[in-house]
Design goal:
The complex is a heterotrimer of chains A (656), B (347) and C (101). Chain A is an alpha/beta fold and 656 residues long. Chain A is built from 17 helices and 24 strands. In chain A, the strands form three sheets. Chain A has a 19-stranded mixed sheet, sandwiched between helices. Chain A has a three-stranded mixed sheet with strand order 2-3-7. A two-stranded antiparallel sheet of chain A has the order 12-13. Chain B folds into two domains: 2-196, Probable tRNA modification gtpase trme, domain 1 (Gyrase A, domain 2), CATH 3.30.1360; 203-317, Beta Barrel (Elongation Factor Tu (Ef-tu), domain 3). Chain B is globular and about 60 Å long. Chain B has helices at residues 7-15, 35-42, 88-100, 109-112, 123-131, 168-182, 192-202, 235-241; strands spanning 2-3, 18-20, 25-31, 54-60, 66-75, 78-84, 105-108, 113-119, 142-146, 149-153, 161-167, 188-189, 246-253, 262-265, 268-278, 285-292, 303-307, 310-317. Chain B starts with a strand and ends in a 30-residue tail after the last strand. Chain C has 101 residues and is an all-alpha fold. Helix content of chain C is 56%, strand content 0%. Chain C contains four helices and no strands. In chain C, helix 1 (3-29) crosses helix 4 (86-96). The longest helix of chain C is centred in the N-terminal third of the chain and has 27 residues, at 3-29. Chain C starts with a helix and ends in a 5-residue tail after the last helix. Classes of the chains: A alpha/beta (656), B alpha+beta (347), C mainly alpha (101). At the B-C interface, strand 13 of B face helix 1 and helix 4 of C.
Chain lengths: 656, 347, 101
Amino acid sequence: MVVAITGYGAVSALGPTADAMWAAVESGKNGIAEIDRFDTSAMASTMGALVKGAALEQSSPDRALDFAVRAAREARARAGLAGGAPRVALVLGTSLGSSVVDLAQLANAVAAEIGATGPRVVVSTACSSSTHAIGIGRDLLEHGFADAVIAGGVDELSPEIFAGFCALGVVAKGRCAPFSEVLGTSLGEGAGFVVLEDDAAAEARGRMPFAFLSGYAISADAYHATSPEPSGAGVARAIRAALGDADLSKDAIDYVNAHGTGTAANDAAEFLAITTALGDGAKHPAISSSKSFLGHAQGAAGALELIATLMGMERGVVPPTMGFTRPRPRCPADPMAGVGPRPLAVGHAISLSSAFGGANASVIVSKERPTTRRAAPIPVYARGRGLVLPGMFAPSDLGPTTRMVGRAPEVSMTEVARGVDPRGLDVCTRMLAKVTVDALVSAGLSVKGSERDRIGLFAGQTRVSSAASTEFHGSIAARGLARLSASAFAKMVLNASASAVTRMLGIRGAVTALSTGASSGLSIVALASFYLARHTELDGIVVAGVHEIAASESADAAEGAAAIVLVRGPNVGTGPLVRIDVEHLGPPDSALASPPDAEIFDAASHAPNSGGFGGGLALVLACDRVNATGRAMYVTDRRGSASVGVRISAAGGREA
Amino acid sequence: MTIAVDATEYHAVRFATARSTLEHASAFIIEGRGAFETTDSLVTADLFLSDAQMRPALVLDEEGLIRADALVGRDDDRYVVCLEGPPPAGARAQLEEAASARGASVRALTDTHEAVALTGPYAWELLGEWLGSDLVGMPYLSLFRLGEILVLRAGTTGEFGYEVFLPRGEAEPRLASLEKIGRDFDLVTVAQSTLDLAALENGFFSIRGEGARSRDPAELQLRWRVGRDKSFLGADALRARGPSTHRVTWVRCAESLCAGDAIVVGDLAIGEILHTGSTVLRPGYVGVARLARPWASAGVADFERVHAGVAAPIRTVAPPILNNRSLHVSPQRHGYRERASFTFPEV
Amino acid sequence: MTEERRAEILGDIARREAVLDQVRTILVEKLKVERDADEIDPDVALFGTGLGLDSVDAVELLVCLETELGVRIPDSSLVRPSMRTVNTLVDLVLSHGKVSA
């Protein structure tokens, strides 16, 4: 399928629409200014790129909802998508871990406002969320689960988030100047969405695409909770994998829209990645950073920056890097520095995003319809399992109607993996580590040497670690915003646990954290299988559902984690093998046709109030059953923000 | 023995780049199924190591006293162990005995590699230009494999410090290229004693320095290298010994200091000097003293050292005794060739 | 030197030890260093080697020094050289903190 981009919309510091944003860029306006919405007198910086006119009395998530709805509406209108058109999916990237308890509710609210009646997925990998969201949108289209996808992201610059970044010492005192003398980033906010469709369908509707989405990829640094890997190897992997996905050579790329935050750590590492993966001797494609005028819009950054890229491509220019004076050592000599866009004919552009915990994402867009023939998606299998159950339960206890509640027993890290420092690891991370290791070991897979680049981890969960959240908010209450706990802030992103596990185990192929609310544990398998089906650089993806109970949670909540390993074929790993087929992915509550030859297993059976854990558990149990009986099972979940139906069938196995 | 060094060599270590050979340490690779168990059984530290991570540790004898200063690194499934203290043959024998009992094997890096060390606030830049920009971002206490070349970043001077193991076949051309590139960095070959003085000023343990006169980890402030609940050779004896009666403290003296000098407060003897060197940046001497516990504290100006019956005042200090240039040089912002255009705090 | 003078010196040392203990307590309780407080030797490095703290811990440490020990650092260039070991932190507290007489 050729994926066309038929619409886009943006709300940013430069204006309430994408057109306003581009007009501002053309006239050299910079969206980073003195912050007037909250008090910054005690902070390391006083500047940020705030959306103007955002009502002062609003607060997140309402403000974020407002941004997202406006940007999504603009995108939809530009694409000429009629209201209520069937199967319009929404993929929304956002950080918002610190203020929203259930991210999927935000997605549902946006979908309701804009009439997106298909499935809704939230990607929450902090600063790379919307770039990955756009890639996932492509996957949904290609696997036939949507006719159009509105994909992008949103984030608000709240005082807590601003204070958190300041505490980490990464915020520039004045305006950021990516690749230049001023060190540090400037934070921003807003929302950006693109509309993706099958090019054939767009043509049938009489729409001319603005551009085409040729490829995307994600990768993991497995390096540090907040600093990027200094050699840029993780970003280079994401670039190469995206090129592979698009079937393009590195010479095809004319322009790189960099993550370009302006911090010392990011810019040098990213430039090294670009020269390694896209360069040739001293030459490299044109590079610029849109954060130089949009600020770092966190979950919305990738989408806003891609939209700036698209709007430039339409006009034969690229967005500039503003605020540039002298180049920094080991950074590009001229990152399209200037006050306005620079003329450059761009055939193919790549947009890069990186995030806390090393979750990198990249998306390639093309001006002309791609003619390369990408390989067909391959069938996906699964083997191995890992399980952490609530305290009183053993797997053998699980009869068909057993309901599990309560906390899980403490996971001792020395049992999990030799050589892991247990200092400061929260319950969510410990459980996730244990099930990941157990799943890999039982699947006969090791993660050593170059194997590390070929294994990924996808985590389905509904919220960040509640212990970390309590610590974060507690530090604000006890010591004030200017002295909040930086280490707790670093955990206020949904992918914090998954990223920590990639560091522990050296998993570098991919890392992400997604939520569809209560169905997260099942939808994560669907989304991971779409990724693995196309990404030949990976051998397998560990797919886990996890839930850590919060102190305030109701008595019927269950804590635990469950994982299986998706593998590209019977030759990857050893042990009993099942085949995974995603049969249904639709809006919540949508009816699922039951296949005649498979037993239905409702994911809500054993642990209905358990975030991502319940779905993951259902998957593990279903795989067990299929392996034992040879008969197929159909695992379903209609809750949260997406209805999911995954068919699991026997596929023989391979002896160790 | 008081360390006295050449000022040019010292300047290279503290402000530019310096090159040296690894005279006293021997490096081994432990590999095979039991590599972890072998390494774990001998060294005192908890081996929570991610791939490419390193950690300083100790190897003790059966009495719980230091036999070797150890640096352990994890290279995928193999362990890199650098030992200083015992003669190389003895170190190898001990490792081989532990390895053969656990299904692992030992090889000495010096059998196949030639080693060179680079130190200095711009050593990272020299290393990057010499072997590749990937190396510039190596974190402290990490290792990096470039084909058959192994690089360890584990300096003990407070400046950027790297040990580079070159396979013998490549060593000559690589070292020639180092020589050439080094000219842009005013690279100077320095004696081990220069590095030893730098280590002393920065509070790093020297097994040939204070370790020649005391081998008790508790006394030497090396308990941080000992894992809490771990079992290793000498663990029982170490734990049975309990808290020490003395502790090392760093001292400075305007006049000379000699190992063996007594330390007194008034006419009460409270300890002795273990190791000392003559400082280059400011006149005087720096040393490590072993003091009775009640007196072992930094910030005291009332003690004296007694040498051949003559007393001179000393003051106890908290090392490092200087503001290392490497703390302020940032690979993302600074370069040796442009150093004149930056203002750094006084060292 | 008189007996009295020696006792005074020991008193000064005891006061320094008290601050050392306060810093150790912060390291164990707030920064989750996995050692008994009295096992943390004074000249042990904080970052990289020694206690193995990282850049995110550094921020937390400074905040705790301020809130628990009243340390206010007027000049940010003093920060790095003061945060080398537990003992250098004690020097910082003694020169810039609100230490009770």
